[in-house]
Amino acid sequence: MGQLNSVLILGGSGQAGAGAAAVLRRWHPELPLTIAGRDLGRAQRVADELGAATAATVDLRRADLGLPADAEHTAVVAALWDHQLRGLRYAQERGLPYLSISSGLVDIAPEIVASAQRPSASAVLVASHFCAGIGVLATLHATREFERIDTVRIGAVLDELDAGGPAGLADLARWATATSAGLVRRDGVFTWVAEPDARTDVPSSDGVRVPGQSIAILDVPSIALATGAPNVRFDFAVGESAGRRRGGPASVELRIDVEGTGPGGEPRSLHRYLVHPEGQRPLTALGIALGVERLLGLRGEAVPPGVHTPEALLDASYAAERLAEIGAQFVGAPGGT
Hints:
This is Saccharopine dehydrogenase. The chain is an alpha/beta fold. Helix content is 33%, strand content 29%. It has two domains: 6-131 and 284-316, Rossmann fold (3-Layer(aba) Sandwich), CATH 3.40.50; 133-279 and 320-332, Dihydrodipicolinate Reductase, domain 2 (2-Layer Sandwich). The strands form three sheets. A seven-stranded parallel β-sheet has the order 3-2-1-4-5-6-15, sandwiched between helices. A seven-stranded mixed β-sheet has the order 10-11-12-7-13-14-16. Strands 8-9 form a two-stranded antiparallel sheet. The radius of gyration is 19 Å and the shape is globular. The protein starts with 5 loop residues before the first strand and ends in a 5-residue tail after the last strand.
């Protein structure tokens, strides 16, 4: 593959964008990166730390994003909410792959419609899942030895001090305003669950149960349709993490509970945590970096135009290898393997 133009990272000086840029720099030292944000000084500091990167200011209210007319890019990453779809349109008009992480299940309709109206324009990776798809990939990796999957229940515990920067907090507030109901798959039917049925406790790895609730998140349809499981639920809790209770930094935990059958049809269950001692930022950064790597054909073939999700493009076993590299661990949970 010849020299690529730079990857334009909108929100590249924020937690998710800067983290993803750092991962991409480690994996692909020669890949040019453009760190774009509203504060040029902050973007420049991130670019200087990375090396082989440039900084730019962007205006998401403008069709050209406020970038020079001769700017050339190889992909567009929206590491923030592309609220007017300017980043997506910019990518479509130039035939560039596009990745987004902040629409959430409640906001993806305009993104999907825009992509469907111009299906041959760009490869669009909709990655507004938990940690940019890492939760889905971790679940698929954990369930690879099941013959049939009947039930998947995911429980995420996010430390209250690790909800992200201003953009991440705004995403959480926007999603909460859109709906307080959760989306589950129950007996094969995608169903909205309202309070009080949505309320539940999410168990941490140290046994503490954190109050939470079922949420509307893309992980539910992604896991359900990828595994065929007729029953899928994703619970989410924000509170003090197990890492912080031990006196360390804020950690993040994803509990994966699965029921089904193994080879030969015998009953099988799995109860496991995916844990990172440094919180959600490394996982989200990894999810974005995996998506960019795949979109550009830096691993596997370049992705054709159309709408894609993380589990449709990314190999779960490869993602697990990368998770181990960044210090994430799969650990057994009470009740099973």
